[in-house]
């Protein structure tokens, strides 16, 4: 009987102990859960970190996104029309080439074609020094042509044969000329010209016009540049000397237009590829106020013609798109004696074709042409494009 009571007592104590331990564990668990529930800092941090659609400034994805956005803005294609993004692979299509340039082409002559940022290089034509004076006693205007400086080369030999024409505008019937200085880009003329029998009042109504030309024995003389000075803006009582920058000759006919050309030199294949892309604002040569332009190319070695090529004719068009490529074999050892003459012609069915304008590309032509040639040599296997103003 006593034994049974002891067993019942021990079972009761064990059951009580288990209950107390279970209760203690439950209380601790509830306390921990309650504590975590009260502390929402962890939950807020975790929620912000894992919240979908939100990127922090430190995530690689957001950094890449900002980088791409900046690249698109900074490298926006100049010739892409508004509202038309470039192709997904970053290169322009053939249509884009017709409109301007291909994606792998380098455009090196920013200028002004409407709003697309293209245009010919502002060419330096050199300058001229001269003096002007008037004798009230003899009613004589004295003009002395002193010298020229940094004139562009117009001949295949890399030089020019310059001389100067003088007019007192608006009279163009009576002109005076200096002597021709052979093969000289910095000529010294030192020639004096007298306009006699001009009352001072008449002189002040005139404009002194100087035109520098390159003499050509077998064809028309090539204009180099011009200077105009209204004499009513000059103090004629004493002799004054001027240095004036030459400006492109209008020659009474206005501009002849511009041609976009790309050059690509391949030193491995010893070739120069000329791509005639397009022209703009060509001079109208026909009675109907338009032209039928095509482009003729001559590869010259020294003064000898080596190879001739030409584009198709574009009917009744002053802004033609040609987009034709012409490879020429040019060994490395003759590059310095090589000239590529590009002539824009107007096709005429009933008479001889008219010359609209020319470009001479070589290492010794005018400043714009030399720049294009050097850029081509400095970027082998790359299409280097540049606008050129057509010249007479």
UniProtKB/TrEMBL annotation:
Segments forming domain C2: 124-244, 255-388
InterPro entries in the record: C2_dom, C2_domain_sf, C2A_Synaptotagmin-7, C2B_Synaptotagmin-7, Synaptotagmin
Transmembrane domains' residue ranges: 20-42
Keyword Transmembrane helix applies: yes
Molecular function GO labels: calcium ion binding; calcium-dependent phospholipid binding; calmodulin binding; clathrin binding; phosphatidylserine binding; SNARE binding
Keywords of this entry: Membrane, Repeat, Transmembrane, Transmembrane helix
Annotated stretches, region: Disordered: 48-96
Positions with biased composition (Basic and acidic residues): 61-71
Gene Ontology annotations for the cellular component aspect, listed alphabetically: axon; lysosomal membrane; peroxisomal membrane; phagocytic vesicle membrane; presynaptic membrane; synaptic vesicle membrane
One GO BP annotation of this record: regulation of insulin secretion
Pfam families: C2 (PF00168)
Family note: Belongs to the synaptotagmin family.
Protein name: Synaptotagmin VIIa
Organism: Gadus morhua
